[in-house]
Amino acid sequence: MKYRKESIDNIRYIIKIYGIVQGVGFRPFVYNKAKDFKIFGWVENVGGALVIDCTGTRANIKHFIEAIVKKPPSLAKIEKVQCTFMKNELSFDELVNNSNFIIKKSANDKNQTKFVSPDAAACPKCLEDIQRKGTSRYRYAFTNCTECGPRYSIIKALPYDRPYTTMQAFTMCRDCQKEYDDPISRRFHAQPNCCAKCGPKLFLTESNGEQIQCEDAIKEAVKLLEEGKILAIKGLGGFHLVCNGRNEQAINALRNRKHRRDKPLALMAKDIEVVKEICHLSEKEKQVLISNKRPIVILKKKAASILPEGIAPKQNKLGIMLPYTPLHQLLFNEKLNLLIMTSGNISGMPIEYKNEEAVAHLSKVADYFLMHDRDIYIPADDSVVRVIQGVEAVIRRGRGYTPYAVKTETKKQIIAVGGEQKNTICVSKNGYTYLSQYLGDLEEFNCYENFKYVLRHFTNLFDINAELLVHDIHPAYLSTKYAKEQNLKRMEVQHHHAHMVSCMAEHSIYDAVIGVIFDGTGFGLDGAVWGGEFFIGNRESFKRAGHLEYVSIQGGEQAIKEPWRCAVSYLQAIGNDPSEIIQGLEVEKIEVVKQALDLGLNCFFSSSIGRLFDAVAALIGVRNNITYDGQAAIELENIIKEKVEESYSWNIEKRNGVFLIKYKDIIEGILKDIQRKELVSKISAKFHNSVSEASCALVCELRETEGINKVVLSGGVFENQYLLRKVYESLVERGFQVFHNEQIPINDGGLSFGQLHAVSAIMEREG
Ligand code: ZN
Ligand code: FE
Is the pLDDT of residue 434 over 90? Predict the structure, then answer.
């Protein structure tokens, strides 16, 4: 009778949890909570979801569900929870016989929505484990558990089980297997579980790949770094080139060997104290820095910092991350607390991730290699983020941030192949969109091969049978060419519309907006190079309501690498003689461009804000030639020091129903300031202010005529923080609702996401 009473009080629920719930220690977590709240039943992975059958008292069930949903394991990301009340409560017999809670073996269901956890930084408990002398994890570089370690980079296929990862090559020893099988262990079903006895091993080699015999490869590597040597070190998503961040000679050697003259090098600091010593750090920036995604965070350099200039020439910011694997942690000591950690590649090529290829390609750059025998299946660069107005804004999605799954309207299976530079791909299925890692500039050597490899892997992983391919309208992009070669239905999306939709989709905006898209290069509907665009539109379509007035720029692709060509073009357009104004160049060179402009040889029409920034940078002597993408504009922003409210006069003209921002007055204002020998820092600020003011005025005009109050800011030029903040704040002041990209890159890394959502909106309407 006593049991009978209890069974009446009990209730039963089936709970289905969707999201990143597998491979993150969810089942042992549920098991432990079930024990805490005296719950009977089972937990099981079904397809991509976690299913719990639970019976207990009403109060206990309530607390149990709350405990699971409100504070899930740290790597879990819950997308949806479904609770179904079961009338057929467990019978007396079932209750007595099942008076415990069990973890059932995985079942697989092909049609379930798939989620994959990104790689995660070593957790504090694992970092403690590697300090424990006398254990098989003491100083063991591959220590991990269900809360941390490699995931996406080692997964070959789903379901996430050891045989489908690159850890398949290693057989767990008895102790590891015991942890793996023990439901209350932190390493219960931790697929990459291993220790020094049974797991991957590190080794040190000469630059030619010849192994060096030594007791402790890490200790040896540290010694070499202290001596100023350059090491190629295999990490989570690929190789890094590493040297002491305080050793000027080593840094210069690395730059010379890598043929990387000016582009900033990323740093890894021993701990947060070291970061604070060299950079300003807000609370939010600190949180992002220590999160288990461990991105490179762009931080403001402290003026007094005494670091080698070679880390980031002419920059007032530094890109810093914290150690994210036990291996990284073990590289640091009191003396060696700051390392250069730049992607292990030859400039332009994809990051190296295979041992033999790394040695083949990097032997002239690295003095030594610190490698291991755990294969990286899919490479991913470090992610790059910054904090803007207290919000994390991702500039490059890579390790720790990939893959990124977001809910979407369409149930269709679509592949969007993105742009040409900073390429990413995006796929959709079952109402979810998945964004890939950064794949670099496709026209660079081997990047296109890598693009195809990742595309194949990505579509296999998420089991995509594409009905449709989406690409940019630029005919020469390799991604466009790829799409055209496939035997599939295709749709194209204009570059800046894709930028606009990338921002709308991430902020769940469906109605019409004013899109302000400031960009370097993008193919326009009229064949011109667009990039200073004011659109009215929604996800499906747009109207070009305004733009920066066209200028004829000479030099084709060369003009992007040689900002002085932009300066000559702008000066010629407003009737000034460039030869008298531009400094530091042979007059003959300028004359050739002038003549070509007159004849219209190798010229293109441009409304690109990027090219306008280039022109101004060259005009005021900041930079005539660049060695990395966006360099002139970046340096132009960086020279702004003091608070300047002034601006140049500007004007807007309406021609054939389209608003044009005229540049003549702005350029002439700058020329006057140059004559007056005004400080370049002030000229730069005034120029930024002018662009911002003119843009805001144009947006206000559009609000008048269109009655739209929502503004979306996107495009690579908005990586310029001064400009983004200025435009954002001015618009908010005028009562606009303003959005900019946050989780989706504001640069071309966001194009595939925008393309996919533009097309899925069209398909939803058409049904
Ligand atoms: Zn072991
Ligand atoms: Fe773009």
Answer: yes
